Amino acid sequence: MRSHPIPRPLLAAVFVCLLLPASALAYLDPGTGSFIIQMLIGAVLGGLVAVGVFWRRVLGFFKRLFGRGTQDDGKPRAG
Amino acid sequence: MASPGPGEVSPASFRDPSGFVFLRAGRVLRQVNKSYAPDYDQLMESGLYRALVDAGRLIPHEETDEPAELPDECYRVLAPEPVPLISYPYEWCFSQLKDAALATLAIQLRAMEHGMALKDASAYNIQFVRGRPVMIDTLSFERYREGEPWVAYRQFCQHFLAPLALMSRTDVRLGQLFRVYIDGVPLDLASRLLPGRTRWSLGLATHVHLHARTQQRYADRQGTAKRRPVTRLALTGIIRSLENTVRGLRWRPGGTEWAEYYDATNYSTGAFKHKQGLVERYLDRVRPRTVWDLGANTGEFTRLAAERGIPSAAFDIDPAAVEKNYRDCRERGEENILPLVLDLTNPSPGIGWENEERMSIAQRGPADLTMALALVHHLAISNNLPLSKVARFFSHVGAKLIVEFVPKTDSQVKRLLSTRADIFPGYTREEFERYFGERFRILESSPVEGSERTLYLMERKTTD
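ok -> structure tokens follow
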């Protein structure tokens, strides 16, 4: 078995440090778990936004093609 | 060294090193510290401030020449537009909290368009001004750093999503958890209290249940996952997902339609009309600057004050009544009514650090005029409160008073006494006038036609 060039505790400490700088910038403790979950779910949820944008473009293309174009992003605003 | 100004720093304003709120000569001012200067400049110069103020999302302010409270650290002193009555999330009905949540997310999305982000998402940063949820903390913005997660994500979930989900899916009364947990409902608690079927809702499964588990998993071991950037697109996806989840949460009293619920509880008689006329006459006589309507139900009588341009709060213990009132205000665009949930027998106390961070309801008064219509018999008979104590409470919360006395011969009081012994020999009109007369001058009294009730207009004598 090949020994790891960097000791594991040191590696773990580096990962911890990588997680911490953003926390240090915030006056609230954002919570490690709350940061990590955003990394986990962000790609999927961002992907859904991208699919939505793409889909609206496709719909817009066909609406324009058949002359029923409306200029509305369809996003209801809160409040 | 410059000396501190003669103002008083707000006890609620100590967490954020960017600045603080202070009071001086009755004016609410906000000091912006030098450390926050780059963020403040970006807020003002990027067009974000103007966009949010124009959209009614952010409280407008003026930069003033007022001396700083802590001059060594000061960058600017701001005079924000005053908020007529500060309210707290544990006093809001379901839809008020929901609208405040959606406003917070809309502000975050708008901020990202201007290269900024919310650095906190506290429900206490939102206040209802002219009927709409408005961000009052001008220092809540920071420059957005590409790739950073949303630093306020946890706070948003604790302050908005978890309580809304609990109110919607478990029991609306769980909104009161806010009074115990000042930084919002812990997500592990919310996850346990929510019904199991909420795990099938993508939004709640992700932002509450999975979020709670992730927090627990990384609570005592600082994390072993690699740090990956959260791209702008990913962050937008998270905010949009929160928005959709919040929009999907609804609440109706007892699962009934609104009309059914209120048909069963409202009353409508000739006496009601006459009472309205008397209240209008009293209001026109004393022309109060502010009104607190205690036990307001859905705010029928509060509207008489609000229609006269008087900023009025409509307090009621029933979350459904407050919900109905708020929805009506929103639909009709009524700007002068603030409906709030309040149990008068256990009113909002001072909470937080040294019990001073969030004010008790009494500290937020007194109102210029208090209304207590069809209320005293509930306090005196349902809650065994001596009339002397009722009079004392009213003298603390308002300078003038419109109060209704409902005698034992009234059907409503008979109903209250039908299931219990009458241990209230002192509950008479004479005793009522005697105890209230100790604290108030009776300016006018009128019998309510078609009933045995009496309406009084009073003015406070003492304020002990």
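Chain B touches chain A through 51 residues (CB under 8 Å).
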